[in-house]
Please model this.
Amino acid sequence: MLNYSLRRLAFAIPTIFALVIFAFYLMRLAPGGPFTSEKPLPPAVMANVLERYGMDEPLYVQLFTYIKNILCCFDFGPSFSQKDRSVNQIIASGFPVTLTYGFWSAVFVLICGIPLGVIAALRHNSFWDYLMTGLAIFSQIFPNFVLAPIMVLLFTLSWGLLPGGGWNGGQWQYIVMPAIGLGTSYMAGVARLTRGSMLEVLNSPFIRTARAKGLPERTIIWRHALKPALLPTLTYMGPVFVYMITGSVFIDVFFSTGGIGQDFIDGAYSRDYSVLLGLAIIYCVLTLSINLVLDLLYAWIDPKVRDAL
Amino acid sequence: MTSAKTHLNSKEFAEQAAEEMITSRSFWADARVRFFKNRMAVVSVFMLLCLVLFAIFGHNFAKWSYEEIDWSILGKIKTEGAPSIANGHYFGLDELGRDMFARVVQGSRTSLLVGFVAGITSVIIGSIIGAMAGYYGGRFDQIVMGMYTIWLAVPYIIFFVVWQAFFGRSLAQLIMVIILVNWTAGLLIVRGQVMMMKNREFVDAARMLGLNDFAIIFRHIAPNVLWVVVIYSSMVVPEVIMMESLVSFLGVGIQEPNTSWGALISEGASTMTFGTLWQLAYPAAFFVIAQVSLYYIGDGLRDALDPKDRR
Amino acid sequence: MTLLSVRDLNIRFTTGDGDVHAVNNVSFDLSAGQKVALVGESGSGKSQIALSIMGLLAKNAIVSGQVMFNGNNLLAASNDELNQIRAQKIAMIFQDPMSALNPYMKVGRQLSEIVELHEGLSRRDARIRAIEVMEAVQIPDAKRRLDAYPHEFSGGMRQRIVIAMALICRPQIILADEPTTALDVTVQAQIMHLLDDIQRDMDTAVLLITHDLGVVAGFCEDVMVLYGGRMMEKSKVGALFKSPSHPYTRGLLRAVPNIHDQTGQLHAIPGSPPNQMNAPTACPFAPRCNDVIDTCWQTLPELTGEDTQRACIQPVEALS
Ligand SMILES: Nc1ncnc2c1ncn2[C@@H]1O[C@H](COP(=O)(O)OP(=O)(O)OP(=O)(O)O)[C@@H](O)[C@H]1O
Ligand code: SF4
Ligand SMILES: [Mg+2]
Model:
């Protein structure tokens, strides 16, 4: 187990390094730069600016400094476009916001998706089952960027129940719509997957064995069926988290939460390489670590996998 | 990644699917019969066809081009910009005084074009790489799988944002980034199929006949995995349309004045506080119709082609 | 004393293509301590008979008839009532030990939960019982292996655990559904010996389902032959092996590899099992029977006879 964790880490770390190096070169070699504006700066000023940002040195030296600063002091350097802020400050102000509603969104996905899938499987062809099928199709058709405007239309503009955007220090009213808007389609995906695997498990021979023992239905589901039925859901959560991060960029922009997604998009417009690079690294580290945790969790839960490691 | 895809990528599916020897012509004939028995799928094909015709010929019915500004109404959008047959703006005007009908036609064009071209190209590329990885195995396979794992772990929005920051945005570039993001589509499933297939007798026979690897993959294995690729494409196309719409919504997709469903929905959403709901409703409706149709077509194809629920 | 009495059992399955008549008009009795074999080709409905007794048929099954146990008709019993009988009174050993155990649970727990539930034992006592029963089925080092998962056991060991599960409550009846088919020959013999010993110790009634006539000869007293979901012959083992009275049974016996057979040939019964989509109106074996005559195609033979019961319209003497 420990061995496996180390091996997975040994894969994740070079991956991150490769991504950093690749992104760094891509950003520096791309045409134009943060300081190319309509009116070209006088060469002397330009040289000055470049020196200030350490961009007059050879690329590999810049890369080295960049990585060194991240590793030793967790310093992603200054922002190129927001003169008075560093990338660290941008991350520090936006990341907690995104993480907060992202967390609640994940809670929503699991707390609603798993029971819904289980109930739909247990009450095959019942109201809950149809509700779930409906929801699955609905979420496929109404992705977050269609759902979010509709929600604002209803809950803010028509009924005035919830604020249509902003953050306000993370009061719950401001979290509801971002969390639901981000999670709905994945909630439906989790429900559908859980239903499918639950149905399969309930038809498996070992559940028949459990029935033959005279166990009550409740015990059969909780003790025997739930764990194997949830394993595929766990695998599915990896890609879901990756997709949710993309979704969070949308949510940040649409609801003006002040999360890092907005900075990421702004960074693209202003060609703010240091912000783009910093946030891209944060996103990658986040997804890779979530995937790592999920893999370890899976290995820990499934005795067969655990032994194979 | 949808749960349907998870199923297609599973080992059980690969095993079941490889059992089917789809060399006979009757397979496709049977599948066609099954598909056309599925009422939802047939209706959806019809709907999609209508959308495609709308996208191609819609401009002929528009009184305005999608870039033109109707100066006579600009400034009074809220009161006079609503959909009207009389002034020729069937779907109303956007907040810059442009004809929404023409813009929706243009948006449909872009979205469908991007969806089908980028979606299908991605699946083809992914399938070819997957086929080679499955066929050759070894080092090449390891590298491909490593790349695949990394790709899945990187949120796709990063590609779009970074690309747009450096290279700007044109339709061709948009398609390119989408392919770059989606090259993994179909990879795993075709790889699995080919791995199952390559030790079959008919492949051995082909090898004995002295055919080279390339000929074996394309002449003998490809027909047997084609149907898997078809199912996969039917799921990737709506996903790509969705992806394009999302990034266009965020402003890192298609460039003004060209437009797409996502960009239109974005504009509509940003102006809905003013009560000009038609700006949101029409593009959203078209997007939803396309997604519904593609969903049921994909479903129908899966039912018709996938051996799992078939007896 | 008759423990279990099955009368006119019919099992149909509704499917998209029509109904499958898996079991038709099957009746038999099981007395305390009796060992009865149920033999027949694959698909003849053996497992479904056992499952119907346990109340574990698939959802698409339609069942009629009676399964009387202690004065109750099990086919009409509620799930809660059945739960009082399952494992405690009637236990089943499943066909495939590889899939019958929960792969995500320690085997000790899978054993102890049964007695915890039915006998109200504490976890600790239940564990002790689990160890005892594992020792009874000759699993070496039982105490340590209690905390192992099924995949850590070999096929034979897993089958022992499945048997242990059936035994742990000392049931009156064990329905053993092909307990050895998934295992290799030496392990088969061990498992059958084990079952035999335990059966004798506990005086359990056993319904042994198998298609291996060799196992039947060594273990059972009575034998029932099933074909296409119908009972073809019911007799004492000795009589059946000495003078099989039904053409199908004769075919089955010829198909058993026999060291005394000088020709060394295996005589598989030609043809394939019957299509069970329609309720038969003729002898189901007619298409494959060597002795078929015209009337066989028109009448459905009933099971008749005293000691040896058979379902064939022709008298034994008339058979080739
Ligand atoms: N749920 C079901 N739906 C439809 N048909 C079924 C179902 N379950 C069983 N059957 C059919 O019932 C018949 C009897 O099956 P059964 O499992 O009893 O056979 P068996 O005698 O135990 O064979 P084997 O030796 O292979 O175990 C088979 O033809 C099978 O196809
Ligand atoms: S009834 Fe006829 S066909 Fe059937 S077993 Fe007897 S002889 Fe053969
Ligand atoms: Mg069976």
Notes: The pocket of adenosine-5'-triphosphate (ligand 1) is lined by residues C 13, 15, 20, 22, 40, 42-48, 58, 60, 95, 211, 276 (CB under 6 Å). The longest strand of chain C covers residues 2-15. Chain C has a mean pLDDT of 88.
